[in-house]
Amino acid sequence: MSAHVAAREGAAPRAEWKPRVVAFFCNWCTYTAADLAGVSRLKHSPHFRIIRVMCSGRVDPQFVMDAFARGADAVLIGGCHPGDCHYMEGNYNCLRRFHLLQRMLGQMGIEKERFRLEWISASEGERVKTVVNSLVEDVVRLGPLALPGRLREWDREIDHLEAAVSERHEEATSHAR
Amino acid sequence: MFEPAQQNGSPRIGFYVCHCGHNIAGKVDVTAVAQAVARFPGVVLSRDYKYMCSDPGQQMIMDDIREQKLDRVVVASCSPLLHEHTFRTAVARGGLNAFHFQMVNIRENVSWVHDDPADATEKAVDLARAAVRRVRLHRALEQKKVPITPAVLIVGGGIAGIHAALTLASAGKKVYLVEKEPTIGGHMAKFDKTFPTLDCAACILTPKMSAVRSHPNITLWTYSEVTKVEGFVGRYRVTVKRKPRYVIEELCVGCLECIEACVFKEGKFYDEFNQGLGKRKPVYIPFPQATPQLVLIDPEQCIEFKSGKCKKTCAEKCDRDAIDFKQTERIEQIEVGAVIVATGFQTVPSEKVPFYGYGRMPNVFTALEVERLVNASGPTGGQVVTREGKAPKAVGIIHCVGSRDEKTNRWCSRVCCMYSLKLAHLIKEHTGAEVFNFYTDMRTAGKGYEEFFYKVMDDGVHFIRGRVAEVSDWAFTPDEEGKLVIRVEDTLIGRVRRVPVDMVVLATGLEPGPDSQQIRRLFNMSCSSEGFFLERHPKLAPVDTFTDGVYIAGACQSPKDIPDTVAQAGAAAAQVLALIDAGSKELEPNTAYIVEEECSGCKSCIALCPYTAISFDAARKKALLNEALCKGCGTCVASCPSGSIRQNLFQDDEIFSEIEGLLTPVT
Ligand SMILES: Cc1cc2nc3c(=O)[nH]c(=O)nc-3n(C[C@H](O)[C@H](O)[C@H](O)COP(=O)(O)OP(=O)(O)OC[C@H]3O[C@@H](n4cnc5c(N)ncnc54)[C@H](O)[C@@H]3O)c2cc1C
Ligand code: FES
C-alpha cells in the first residue's frame, strides 16, 4: 500500500455518497454466519462488501490500510469467538494487531468507529445483520472518510516541502561555490 | 495444460452470472451485471444463465473454455461453501486448472439480504469486479492427496454410536468406541418400551451392545474420554484418557460377588443409572446388562479410599484378584482416519422450570425417572408408585417442559409428545390410574405415530390442551386435599382448570449435553444457535461437519427419536466408508510456503504457528515450513515483516486486487 497508488486511481466523489465498508470474514465462523443470515433472509444494509479469508489471523494490517487508502469508509474484521478459532489462536493474533492498528489509524485521524473487529460464530446470522447495520449507521453519522483525497493533499504537501528543501540545498551549495 | 493467455500476457476471462431461478434474478438485475462485467479488462465473454450449477450450466462453461479459449472463469451465484467444488470441477473438466476459478456470492450475500434492487445490483457488480481482478492472478495449483488411515473413532456409545460402530466394523474397518460412562447404551438403555411399537428396548438394544463388546474389529473403551485431537482428515492422532475402575478389566468376569461382599450391606449412594431412585454401593455395576460387564469402585465413597481402613471384603471375595485399589488412569494414543461424534443430549434440568415444583414436591417426577419406574428391571421392579410407595390414582403428564418457550429453549424437542403418549399408556397399563396429558400441540409426525396417538386416546387417556401454569400442593377444595394440583388454561373450552393428581410427570425437552462445548472445541466443530452440533449443510450434508473427516450422528445434532438416530448413524458410517474406501482425500491447497531468498530469518513467524509447522534452520538462518503440518490459516503470512511467506489461494496480491476491485469507483 502506498499513497501514490491510491492517488493515481483517484476516488472521484460520486454524485450521491454511499458508505463503503470492506469486511474481512473468516471462512469458518463469520463467513458461515453471513451465509446463515442469507439463508434466514435477514435483510440488512447493502453498503458493505465481504472478502473471505481462511482465518481472521490472515488479515494483514496492510489490507486494512489499503482498503482505507482506496476509499473505504470503514473496515470490519469478523472472526470466531475467543477459543473457537478453527486454527486455535489466529483470532488472538488478529486481536493483537487490531489494537495496534486502531491506535495507528487514530494517529492518522481515522475515527475508531471506522475500524471494528467482531467475533461472530457460525450460528450468529442475526449478529451479522446487527453488526453491519450498526457499523453502517456509524459511518453515515461520521460521513465520508475520503482518505484518497486527503492522501493526495498530503502527497502534494510533501512534494512542496521536498521542493523547498532541495531549493535551499541548491542555494547553499551554490553559495559555497 | 492449456494456458494461452499466460504466454501472451492477456487473460481471457469468462464471466457467468446465475439467476438461480428467482432467487438471484428476483433482486439483482443479472443482465445489467453481465453487461457491466463484459466491459472489465480481460473479460472476453460474459453471460447470464438460469441455473449455472445445472448440467447445461456446467456444460456451457466447459464448451466456452474450449471454443473461446478461456483461461480464467468467474461465476457469480450462491455461496462458495455450497458450489465452489462443483464449478472447480467443471473448470477442470473443461481443461483448465481448477484453481483458475473464482466464485462470487451474490445470493446469500446479496439477493437474499438486501431489499433495494439498485443497491443489490451495484453490490453484485462490485463483487464481480473484485473477482475478475483477483482471478487474473490465480496460480495453477495441485491438490495434495492424503492417505486415509482405515480406522475410525466414535465418541459416544448411545444407540447412534453403537449402530455406527457395528456398521463400520462389519465392513471390516477398525473402530474405537469411546464412552464416558461405565457402560454403553446411552438413554435408550434406560427405557422399558419404545414408541410407537412398544417393543422392549432391552430386547432390541442389548444384543447390539454385546455385539459391540465381542466384535473383533471394535475396541471399546468405556469410562473414558477423548482429551486431545491432533492432525487432520486421514490421520487424526487422538489421546484417550481411561479413568481407573479399580478393577482389572482383563480379570473381572462380572460375577458381581464383590458387590455382594461389600462392607456396606445395603446400597447407600445415589444410583446414576436409576436417576437416584435406587441406591447403590461404592462397588457397583450400573445395571444388570451393562456392557462391558465390569464392576467399578467409586473412590469418593469407598471406605478404603477415604480412610485406608476398610476390611476390603470385596477384594477378599474375588477369587480372580481383579480388584486393584492402586489402579491409575491410563492414557491411550490412537491414529484414525475419521471421527464420528455421537454424544447425544441431556434432558432440560428441572431447575429451569421451578414453577412445576420439582424437588420441592416429592411426587413431581421427570420423564426419565418414570422410564425407570415402568422398567421391569428398574428400582421398583416395574411398579409405578409415588415416593411414598403408593400406586397413584391420577397422574398428570405435562408436555413441552423446557421446550418451545422463550424462557428456556425455543425449539420443539420432537420426541416428548411421543414419549409422553408412551408413558401415558404404560402408566395406565401398570396402575389403571386416570392419566391426563397437558399438551401445547400434539406433534406426532412419523410412521405409525399418529395412529399410536389415537390408540392411546382409545385407551381412555385424557388430553387437555393448554400450557400448565403451575403445580402446587395448595388445596382449595376437600378433593384437592393431599394432592398435587395442576393449574392450566384449557384452551379448547376457554377456562382455567385445576386438576388434582397424585403424581406429576414432566416431559422435559432435549438440549445439548453438558460437555458439548468441550467436544465441539476438541473436534473443531461449530454449533447452531441452540448449541447442537452444526452440520455442513442442513439438507445436502446433514452428517458432515465443517471439519473434514469429522461426522456427527444422533441427538447431538438435534433432538431426534431412535429411528432417525439410527438412520443418521448409518449415514455417518456410510460417509466414513466412502472416505476410507476412496483411500485418499484431496486437500484444499491453501497452505503457506516460504520464499527462501526473501526470508530474513527474523523468526517472528515461528511462535505464531499453532501447529509448529515452522522451524528455524540455524545454519542457513532461514525459516523452514513443513507443508504437511500447515493447515493454511495464513496467520504467519500476515505477520511476516519481509513478506516472504505466501499462502496459496490467498496470496497478498490476490487479496489486494480484490480490495482494489471492490473500491474502484464506477465510471
Ligand atoms: C424420556 C425419554 C423417552 C424417550 N423414549 C423414546 C422412545 O420410546 N422411542 C424413541 O424412538 N426415542 C425415544 N427417546 C429419544 C431417544 O432417547 C433418543 O433418540 C436417543 O437416545 C438418541 O441416541 P444418541 O445415541 O444420539 O444419544 P444418547 O442416547 O444420549 O447417547 C449418547 C452417549 O454418548 C455418551 N457421551 C456423551 N458425552 C460424551 C463424551 N464427551 N465422551 C464420550 N461419550 C460421551 C453418553 O454417555 C451416552 O452414552 C426418548 C427420550 C427421552 C428423554
Ligand atoms: S478461523 Fe475464524 S478466526 Fe480463525
Summary, kept brief:
Chain A has 177 residues and is of the alpha/beta class. Chain A has 6 helices and 4 strands; from the N terminus they run αβαβαβαβαα. Chain B has 20 helices and 34 strands.
What does this protein look like?
The complex is a heterodimer of chains A (177) and B (667). Chain A is α/β, with parallel strands linked by helices and 177 residues long. Chain A contains six helices and four strands; from the N terminus they run αβαβαβαβαα. The N terminus of chain A is likely disordered. A four-stranded parallel sheet of chain A has the order 2-1-3-4, with helices on both faces. Chain A starts with a helix and ends with a helix. Chain A has two domains: 129 residues, Lumazine/riboflavin synthase (Rossmann fold); 32 residues. In chain A, helix 4 links the parallel strand 3 and strand 4. With 667 residues, chain B is of the alpha/beta class. Among the domains of chain B are: 129 residues, 3-Layer(aba) Sandwich (Rossmann fold); 61 residues, no CATH class; 166 residues, 3-Layer(bba) Sandwich (FAD/NAD(P)-binding domain); 57 residues, Alpha-Beta Plaits (2-Layer Sandwich). Chain B has a five-stranded parallel sheet. In chain B, strands 20-27-21-22-23 form a five-stranded parallel sheet. The N terminus of chain B is likely disordered. Chains A and B meet through helix 2, strand 2, helix 3 and helix 4 of A and helix 6, helix 7, helix 19 and helix 20 of B. The structure holds flavin-adenine dinucleotide and FE2/S2 (inorganic) cluster (FES).
